[in-house]
Structure formats: C-alpha cells, structure tokens
Amino acid sequence: MTEERVKTIERALGLTDLAELRVAVRAMTPAEVVEVLERQDSTDRAVLYRLLAKDQALRVFEALDPSLQSDLVRALQHDDVAALFAGMEPDDRVELLDELPASVARRLMRGLPAREREITAEILGYPPGSIGRRMSPEFVALRANLTAGQALSVVTQRLADAETVYTLPVTDDQRAVVGVVSLRDLMSASPDTPIRDVMQDAHVVQATDDAEEAARRCAILKVLALPVVDSESRLVGILTVDDALRILETAETEDQARMSGTEPLRRPYLASPVSALVRSRVVWLLVLAIGATLTVQVLEVFEATLSQVVALALFVPLLIGTGGNTGNQAATTVTRALALGDVGPRDIAKVAAREFKVGFSLGLLLGSVAFLATTAVYDRQLGTVIGLTLLAVCTMAATVGGVMPLLARAVRADPAVFSNPFITTFVDATGLLMYFLIARAVLGI
C-alpha cells in the first residue's frame, strides 16, 4: 500500500470527508484495508468499516484479529453484526466468541441459522486451548470404497462449503480415518481406480490435543491439512495449514513478549490503547523490581568487603551483565528447542549437562581474557578474582538458564515466563554472591 493512499485516508478522516473515504477504501484489497484498520482507534476503525462494500466487508472482517473483530462488534449495529457473524467460518466464529462478553455471544448464537448454530456449538464443546476449538468442521470426507471418479464427483458437489479440498481424509463406514488422498492424486488417477490404491497413511491429531502442539505437528509434517479425530478415532474436523500457522504465530508472539518481560498485547501496536501498553508492562516491572532487592541485599551483606577493596565495585556491572546474558542465551535456546519438540522435561539431565559444558567453556574463554586485562591494569590477585568469577558465573548461568524452561514445562507453566526476566534476577543475586566469596578467598579479606 502506497504512502499517498495512507495519507489520503488519514486526511479524509481528519476532515470527516466520508465521500473521499468511501472511494479510497473501496479501491483497496482486503489486506490493505486490514492494514489501515489496524492503525486506527476504535471510533475511526468503525467509521472506515461501515464504508466498505458488503462483500468486501466480510473478507476484511474475517482477516482481522479476533480482538479487533470484538471491537467492531461493539461498534456496529446488531443487524450488521448478525450478518457478518453468520458468514464467518465456524472456527473463526468460535475464536471471536471467546473475545466477546457472554451476553453478546449468546445473542449472536441465537441469531444463527439452526445448522450453523449446531456446528458452532460442537466446536465450543471442546476445552479452551485445544485444537478442537480451532479446527474446521466443514470438510470433505471420502469413503474408502469409492473410486477416483466417484470421489471427484463428491468433491465437486461440496466445493462451496468445504474449508479445503487439496487434502482429503478417507474414512471407513464408522467414520474412522484410514488414510488421506490429495486432489492431485485423485485427478491424475484413472476414474475407476479405487481410492485405497492412491491414498496415503494419515497423520491425525486428537480434538483434545493442545492447539499449539497440533499446529507444530502440522508444520513439522509439512502437510496442507491434518484430520482431527475424537476419542473414538472418528473424524470430526480438519486443521488446515493456514490455521496452524496462525496458531504458531500467536504462540511465538506470546513467548517473545514474556521473555522480554511484558504481557502479549493481543492486538496490533497502534490499535492498542496506552492503558493496555502500561498494563502489559507494569506487573513485570514490579516483579523484577522486587526481585532486584535480592541484589541490593547481597551488596549490603558484603559492604565491608567493598570498602576494603574499592576496585571490586567497578566490575559488578560487567559480571552480573555477563551472567544475565549467558543465562538468557541458554534459556532462549532451550525454550525454542522445547517449542520445536527437540527436547522435553525428560531430557532435563542431558540439557543440564550440555549447558554446564557450554557455560564452563564460555567462562573459561571470557575469564582468561578478563584475567589478562585486569592483571595488566590492576594486579594479579584482582585479575584472578575476576577470571574465576566469570568462570563460575557463566557455568552457573548457562546451567540454570537451560534447566528452567524444562522445569516450567514439567509443572505445566509457560516456559517463557521462567526465562529471561526471572533468570536475570536470579543470576544477578547469585553471581554477586559468588563474586564476593571468591574475592574474600583470593584476597584474604
């Protein structure tokens, strides 16, 4: 989208020139309209949305984040909202319902046609956070006893109401998944070829499985769709690759926010009120500030040591900064490996051993450099203190940073929460404790 078009819209908004706004937004693609709406406050967003053509409005609404959809629902007239809600895909509809107040959600559900209400209610019956809440119940399933020609006829009849037809689940008479077949294979097969001869083994996920884990599996397998089954292995829906990628994007955003010491905003930055930005940060700042009192207490305990060798105070920022960075590096690496399924809580001993070796190696390298530099500027004893402290701090920080995300997963907590902010606070306090104990032992004070 060009800068000129953005400036035109913002100027027309400022002048409340609805005619110019209508021409501008109706000339845009849905993706461009979404980009504009994400930059506006709730009032201007509603004004712009009302100016869209009817068919354009539905495509734009479906492409918005659920939080922004919720804002629009509150701003639009009930009749407009009811039409939009009925036109959404069932899985997207459920995601919006999770964002709305219960009274609004009930009213919208009552306004749905009976069949759509039944499908939506089925999805709502699965636990929050499960893939059952994010799957699509609108799919084309083929019976295993069909031929390729019969299967193509079924697909053609269902094109209008199917989420995807590129990967098709194959079931037996009890709706149990026995395989999958691609549309390409169906079209290239002879019409009288049995589906059993062209289908492949199916990878499935349980409807109650965690949504992020199911989406990760879809991405790892590199498939266009995964069949979703119930506890009796009967087909109940599909997870398409676009929905899987959206789930992973949301999870990645949350992890990155929490590792940085904030709560995820759940909406675009410019669309978030200042109060939401404050709330997302203030709790973590308070927690970290309270945790930092441990560092102050350590400094207070060793105040006499500092007064005897004032030069020790000069190296405090270097040591706690290096320790915090080492711990954060380890935590970020292991959290990522955990998300990809490379490691799990059962690997805690292996991860601890590997990070111990990594931390020791890094500490040995950094400590050697610090020893030589400090000895050249000050003296050999102080250089020994700094070198040994870096060795100890890096080893401890890497080990703790690697283990904490695994411990978090073991107790069913978010690994990102236990990563950078808490590790930095922990390493600061324990690093200073190691520093002063080593200084006392080497300097004899």
UniProtKB/TrEMBL annotation:
Identify one Pfam family in the record.
MgtE_N
MF terms in GO: magnesium ion transmembrane transporter activity; metal ion binding
What membrane topology does the UniProt entry give? Multi-pass membrane protein
Enumerate the spans annotated as CBS domain: 135-198
Going by the UniProt record, its keywords in alphabetical order are: CBS domain, Cell membrane, Magnesium, Membrane, Metal-binding, Transmembrane, Transmembrane helix, Transport
- Give the family from UniProt: Belongs to the SLC41A transporter family.
Known function = Acts as a magnesium transporter.
Q: What is this protein called?
A: Magnesium transporter MgtE
